[in-house]
Amino acid sequence: MDMLPAFIKGAEENFPKASITFDKFHVIQAANEAVDEVRRTERKSCAELKDTRYMWLKNPENLTAAQQETMAKLKDCDLDTAKAYRMRLILQEIYRYPAAIAPMMLQDWIQWGLRCRLAPMVEVAKMLQNHYDGVVRWFSSKLTNGLLEGVNSLFQAAKRKARGYRSEKNIIAMVYVLAGKLNFAFQRFSGNS
């Protein structure tokens, strides 16, 4: 699940025996937001960072040739943004480690994050420290809520597209229609006809 306090509280109240797993997507999303915040702050004093926002949000293998060239030039500068970007890449790499060593590596990253003097990255480290058990649980469960969020986005799009329904009954019917189409597509894709 997401790390929003309302979600956590709701899960703890309604499912007291459940173990909460925090999705790696939300961890990396928080790190990406922190990198962007560092970039925005540093942009005020560094003209070289102009028009580089999306470059810092990509993985190195996904950079265009022009972005790779820009990254190579900026690598030699002593930029806080580059440091935050490296921290994000290392955090992302921890999710590829075996479950036996990943928690130790995550603890090391948290300590680095707490000492790094980049306020947004310190906040990410504190978040990981405060939710450590749920974050580490991902390494054994590998649970993600990506499918549910994708389905929810389809329902939200249908709601926007219709610009409102006359009654709750109509929107519920539309959700059932979409869910039926999704179920049919899933069965065809998985071969379970």
TrEMBL record:
**Domain Transposase IS204/IS1001/IS1096/IS1165 DDE positions:** 1-174
According to its UniProt record, what is one Pfam family this protein matches?
A: DDE_Tnp_ISL3
Source organism's superkingdom? Bacteria
- What InterPro entries does this protein map onto? Transpos_ISL3, Transposase_DDE
Q: What is this protein called?
A: Transposase
Q: Which organism is it from?
A: Paenibacillus thermoaerophilus
Its lineage reads:
Bacteria, Bacillati, Bacillota, Bacilli, Bacillales
